[in-house]
Design a protein that fits this description.
about 450 residues; alpha/beta; binds iron/sulfur cluster; single chain; 9 strands; about 50% helix; disordered N terminus
Length: about 450
Amino acid sequence: MASEKQKPDLPSAFDAHHPPAIELIEKCVHCGFCLPVCPTYVLWGEEMDSPRGRIYLMKMALEGTAKMTEQWVSHFDACLGCVACMPACPSGVEYGKLIEATRAQIERNYERPAGDKLHRRLLFETFTKPGRLKLLRWPLLAYQKTGLQTALRASGVFKMLPKSLAAMDALLPQVRPTEIVPPVTPAQREKRKRVGLLLGCVQRAFFSQVNAATARVLAAEGCEVVAPLKQTCCGALCVHAGEEAHALELARTTIDVFEQANVEIIVVNAAGCGSNIKEYGHLLRSDPAYAERAKRFATKCRDISEILSELPPWAERKALRARVAFHDSCHLQHAQGVRDQPRALLLQIPGAELLEIPEAPLCCGSAGIYNLVQPEAARELGDRKAKLIAALQADVVVTGNPGCVLQLQSSLAGTNRQIPVVHTIQLLDLSIRGKSLDALR
Ligand code: SF4
Ligand code: SF4
């Protein structure tokens, strides 16, 4: 019989650089309260695809009783990192830190198949580089405007291609004219705050209208808005996928750039980026030059709905009659605990009727690059969410993350209801400018 004494002698499957912490793992009392909110457990009912099962797998690897086999890794690849399990956990298990550490270990110590590796590399080399994303606008525009996209979709060719390619096509954003956010947008009337605006990567390249709306609303509410030209990706996608070294480099640059901008608050309108920046203190904890600065920086970060809830409204909200379905992005509701603030903003709009989407804690399947690397599970979750939304007979769907916008647009395209999906701030901007929903089309 293997005695308890032998366990410490087994080599851990993890290296010594920040393995998932045993004190966090041991907080799990195996109660199972997290199971009903875990999307992968809801889909497949498999213990090892639940938070409790994954924590157990981490413990086994840490103690050397499990190795990083293909199967072991697959349970972590299948995790959306949506952290719905955290608010559901009565023991306060910080699953976000555990999965982040485990993923970094996997990327350093597990040899992925060559095709898988290349696919991931391509995604990171594209999605974390706003300049490269912008270059993609032209071929994408040609693909959409020449009718090639429609023809290929109608031909059924995507059924014969790898699922990841079909997923990529289904998720392509509609290319729209770029709206420029100037480096400084002056406050209208009196200046209440000087804020920095994180422009994001996908947001900057394909949803520039969201950044423009954010700057307009903040200015109308008395904020001077600084959008530093030198800002890069904040590193969110890298952190969530275990690309730690790259994430650290991007986090340091983001801190440097916004410190130089001398702003009181950093406003973020992409939930995935906000949840990442709020954890910079943890990410940079071992870097003597940045650890303290990262902690301070994180406390200055606010989602756009948070900062607007802190400022009593100055700008008049004009009537906008619409049935509005609000989708909670996981990185807003679970990771940042921001649920009431976006709803409160929507309720400020006269004529807007707020509709709650059932199963709100369940992820829509977006989750960073999840819908590109795990297309089948993402599609199942997206279709499930789209059905629930379609039944609400909403005029518009709003949410707080560009990834969710793309995933919901793509999923709703499969229903018989074509509903626009936009960011919360766009609706508030329309109301302040006295425009109707038609301005979104
Ligand atoms: S992060 Fe989401 S998918 Fe992963 S274990 Fe937690 S609830 Fe499940
Ligand atoms: S709810 Fe928390 S303590 Fe209970 S099984 Fe899930 S992670 Fe473990």
